[in-house]
Amino acid sequence: MAQNVRYVVLLIALGTIAWLVAGVVAVAMSADAKVIWTCVMGAGLGLTGIRYTIRRARRSGI
Asked: Which positions, given as ranges, span the membrane (predicted)?
């Protein structure tokens, strides 16, 4: 079961990295503030998801 947690964290981390890359591209292209904030919030929620998944796995004894 611990392997599944690693895969989930890896998947969330890849999504978070994708949001960060999109944010950098948006800033480089002088995108609207709405697009940049969407990227920031996506990355922030990804970090929250990683933290939540790890804490949940530790609490359940996986």
From this structure: 7-29, 35-54
